[in-house]
Design goal:
This protein is α+β, with helices and mostly antiparallel strands. The protein is built from 21 helices and 20 strands. It folds into 3 domains: 41 residues; 200 residues, Alpha-Beta Complex (Penicillin-binding protein 2a (Domain 2)), CATH 3.90.1310; 341 residues, DD-peptidase/beta-lactamase superfamily (Beta-lactamase).
Length: 624
C-alpha cells in the first residue's frame, strides 16, 4: 500500500517536471521565433519585400503554349521615408518624378492621398512599401531605374503580367486585373494592388494558377538604406509558382473556328462527346486579349463596353436563343420513350399544322412522313401533332402532369439549368413550367394547342449555344453525357471527378437509332429529301439538324448542330450565326468546315469555295 502511494507520488513529480519543461520550451519558441517575426513587422529597421509567385501557364490539349508570363515593374513608395526627406529639408523633385513617370502633379497628389486613405488601402502602414504606379514597361523601367537614387523612399517591385501567345479564345482563357475591395475582404491572401483572375479560366482556376507569394526580409540603416539580408535569409520565404494547366482546347481548331466567325455575331462550340472536353469555344465578335493588359486596360475596357456589337459578351455561355428545329430531335426522343410515337409513326402535313383557324406553317415536302424522314425534312406538323398527342394522352391524367413528364425529360438533356461547365457566368437558359403558362393563359385555362410552338423549339424555350452542343453530344452517345469542361490536366494533380462522371437521360439507347438515321439523312440525303446537304463532308458521315431561330428584332438566326463521324463520334458541334437566316444556308456549311478541319486537319482544295464564301460573309449590323 505504502509502495503504491510512493509510486503515484513519483508519477506526479515526473509529470510536473515534464510540464514545466514544455512550458519553458514553448516560451522560448515564442520569444525566439514568433517574437522575431513580430519584431520584424514592427521595427523600422526591416524592409519586407514581397516576392511574387509566377502564375501558372496555360497549354492547349496538344501541349502548345497559350498563356505565359512576362515581367512588369511597379513603382513602390515607403511613406515614412518620403516624410523623413521632407523633414530634413531635402524633398524630392516632384516635377522630375512626374515627368519620368508620365503623370501630372495632380495625379501624383491623388495617388499619394489614395495610398494614405485607409478606407481604400486596407492595412496601410507608413513603414511598408505601397504601390504608387503599376505596370511600367521595360523601356519605362530602364529610364526610371537610372535616376531612382534621386528619389529616396521609392523602389521598383518586379512582377509578372500575362502574355498571350495567340490573340484567340479571349473569353475562354479570361484575363487578370487588380483586386477589388471585396476580393481583399473575402480572401486574406490578397492586398491592394495584387492581381486576380476576373473571368474565364483565369477566374475559375485562380486558386491553382496564383501560387504562393514569398517574402525577403532586409536590414536598413538609420537612413533607410538597405544593408543586406536579415540573418542571412533564415527568415526569408521563397515563392511557390502556380500550377500549369492543360486545357481541352485544340489551338488549331480554335483559330480556324474564329476565322470562320470573322465579321459575324454568334458562337461556335465543339465538344468531344466521349469525354465532355471542349475542343473550341468561339464568341464573336471578340477582341485581342492583350488590350486588357497593362496601364491602358481601363481605357480599352471602356471602349469595348460601349461597342454596340458587344464583344465583351461571352456568347457560348451567356447568349440565349430559341433552339428552333434542332429541338425536334430532343422531342422525338421524348415522344418515343413515352410511347407516343415509334419509328414508323406518320403524321400528315398540309404545308403546316392546321387546326380550325390555327395554322403553323411548314415548307413543301412529301407527306405523310415517318420519324426519320420527319427529321431529315424538318416537318413542323409532325412535331406539333406528336406533342399534342402526348400532352392530351389520358395515361397522364391531365395536361399539367403530362407537361411535367415532358419537362423532366428535357431537363435530363441539359436544358433549363446550368450544365456546370468549369467556366464562370454560365446562363441557365429557360424551360417553362406549368406556373408560367398559368400566368400567361390563366390557371388551368391553357391547352396543348396554346403551347404547340415548343414542339419545334420556339415559344418559351430558351437555350445557350453550350447547351445545344451538349445535346448533340448526348445524341452522339445515345443517351449519356459528361459535363462539358475546359480543364484537361493539372500539373501534379488529377481533375475533379465532377468532370469525368457520366450523366444519363431517361431515354433508352434504342430510341436514338431512328433519330440518328434522320440526322444522317438530313445531311447526306434521304429517301424523301433533306435540309442540310451543305453540311456534307466527303468520306465522313455527319449527322446533323438545321434550325432557324425567330428573331423579333431583325433577320432570323441560323442554327445547326451535328456530330461526326456517325460511328464512334469524335466531335459534336453547335453553331449559331445571328441574323443570317436559314440554318442550312450558313451555320450548316460552317459546321462541316469545323468537322473537316478537326478530323482531317485541313480543308481540301475542292471545298475551298465553301470556305471562301464563309470567310467573306459579313453579318455585322454595326460594321465599322
Amino acid at each position: 500500500m505504502i509502495r503504491d502511494r510512493f509510486k503515484n507520488r513519483n508519477y506526479i513529480i515526473r509529470g510536473t517536471v515534464a510540464l514545466v519543461v514544455l512550458i519553458f520550451i514553448a516560451r522560448l519558441f515564442v520569444l525566439q521565433v514568433v517574437k522575431n517575426y513580430a519584431d520584424i513587422a514592427e521595427s523600422n529597421a526591416f524592409y519586407k519585400e514581397t516576392i511574387y509567385a509566377s502564375r501558372g501557364m496555360l497549354y492547349d490539349r496538344n501541349g502548345k503554349l497559350l498563356v505565359y508570363n512576362h515581367p512588369t515593374y511597379d513603382v513602390m513608395v515607403i511613406m515614412r521615408d518620403l516624410n523623413d526627406q521632407n523633414r530634413r529639408g531635402t524633398p524630392i523633385d516632384t516635377l522630375e518624378l512626374c515627368e519620368l513617370l508620365s503623370i501630372s502633379r495632380v495625379e501624383f497628389d491623388t495617388r499619394m492621398e489614395n495610398i494614405k486613405d485607409r478606407s481604400k488601402n486596407r492595412g496601410y502602414s507608413p513603414l511598408t512599401p505601397q504601390r504608387f504606379i503599376t505596370q511600367l514597361t521595360p523601356t519605362e523601367y530602364a529610364v526610371f531605374q537610372e535616376k531612382l537614387r534621386k528619389f529616396p523612399g521609392f523602389s521598383i517591385q518586379v512582377r509578372t503580367l500575362r502574355k498571350f501567345a495567340y490573340p484567340i479564345a479571349t473569353h475562354a482563357l479570361g484575363s487578370i486585373g487588380e483586386v477589388s475591395k471585396n476580393d481583399i475582404e473575402n480572401d486574406p491572401f490578397y492586398k491592394q494592388g495584387d492581381y486576380i483572375g476576373i473571368n474565364g479560366v483565369e477566374k475559375q482556376y485562380e486558386h491553382l494558377l496564383r501560387g504562393e507569394n514569398g517574402m525577403h526580409i532586409k536590414l536598413r540603416d538609420s537612413r533607410g538604406r538597405i544593408q543586406g539580408q536579415y540573418k542571412d535569409g533564415d527568415f526569408d520565404v521563397d515563392p511557390i509558382a502556380g500550377k500549369n494547366l492543360t486545357l481541352t482546347l485544340d489551338l488549331d481548331l480554335q483559330q480556324y473556328a474564329e476565322q470562320l466567325m470573322q465579321n459575324k455575331i454568334g458562337s461556335i462550340v465543339a465538344i468531344e462527346p466521349s469525354t465532355g472536353e471542349i475542343l473550341a469555344l468561339v464568341s464573336a465578335p471578340s477582341y485581342d486579349p492583350s488590350l486588357l493588359i497593362g496601364r491602358q486596360r481601363s481605357e480599352n475596357y471602356e471602349k469595348l463596353r460601349k461597342d454596340p456589337n458587344k464583344p465583351l459578351l461571352d456568347r457560348p455561355l451567356m447568349a440565349r436563343y430559341p433552339p428552333g428545329s434542332t429541338f425536334k430531335c430532343i422531342n422525338a426522343l421524348i415522344f418515343e420513350q413515352e410511347g407516343i410515337i415509334s419509328e414508323n409513326t406518320r403524321y400528315n402535313c398540309n404545308h403546316g399544322y392546321v387546326v380550325g383557324n390555327f395554322r403553323l406553317g411548314c415548307h413543301a415536302h412529301v407527306s405523310p412522313l415517318d420519324l426519320p424522314n420527319s427529321i431529315s425534312n424538318s416537318c413542323n406538323a409532325y412535331y406539333c401533332a406528336a406533342l399534342r398527342d402526348m400532352l392530351d394522352h389520358k395515361k397522364y391524367g391531365n395536361i399539367r402532369d403530362a407537361f411535367d413528364v415532358w419537362k423532366h425529360h428535357v431537363v435530363a438533356f441539359g436544358f433549363g439549368y446550368r450544365t456546370g461547365v468549369d467556366l464562370p457566368n454560365e446562363n441557365r437558359g429557360f424551360i417553362p413550367n406549368t406556373e408560367v403558362y398559368d400566368k400567361i393563359h390563366g390557371k388551368n385555362r391553357w391547352r396543348s394547342l396554346n403551347i404547340v410552338s415548343i414542339s419545334i423549339g420556339q415559344g418559351e424555350i430558351i437555350s445557350t449555344p453550350l447547351q445545344l452542343a451538349n445535346s448533340a453530344a448526348i445524341i452522339a452517345n445515345k443517351g449519356w453525357w459528361i459535363r462539358p469542361h475546359i480543364l484537361k490536366g493539372i500539373e501534379g494533380e488529377k481533375i475533379d471527378t465532377f468532370y469525368t462522371n457520366k450523366h444519363y437521360t431517361m431515354v433508352e439507347s434504342r430510341h436514338f437509332e431512328p433519330v440518328i438515321q434522320g440526322m444522317e439523312w438530313a445531311v447526306n440525303g434521304g429517301p424523301t429529301g433533306s435540309t442540310a446537304r451543305s453540311a456534307r463532308v466527303e468520306d465522313i458521315i455527319v449527322c446533323g439538324k438545321t434550325g432557324t431561330a425567330e428573331n423579333p428584332h431583325g433577320a432570323d438566326h441560323s442554327i445547326f448542330f451535328c456530330f461526326a463521324p456517325k460511328d464512334n463520334p469524335k466531335i459534336a458541334v453547335a453553331i449559331i450565326v445571328d441574323n443570317a437566316g436559314f440554318g442550312g444556308t450558313w451555320a450548316a456549311p460552317m459546321a462541316s468546315l469545323v468537322v473537316e478541319k478537326y478530323l482531317k486537319g485541313e480543308i481540301p482544295e475542292n471545298r475551298s469555295h465553301v470556305e471562301e464564301r464563309i470567310l467573306n460573309a459579313n453579318f455585322m449590323p454595326h460594321a465599322k
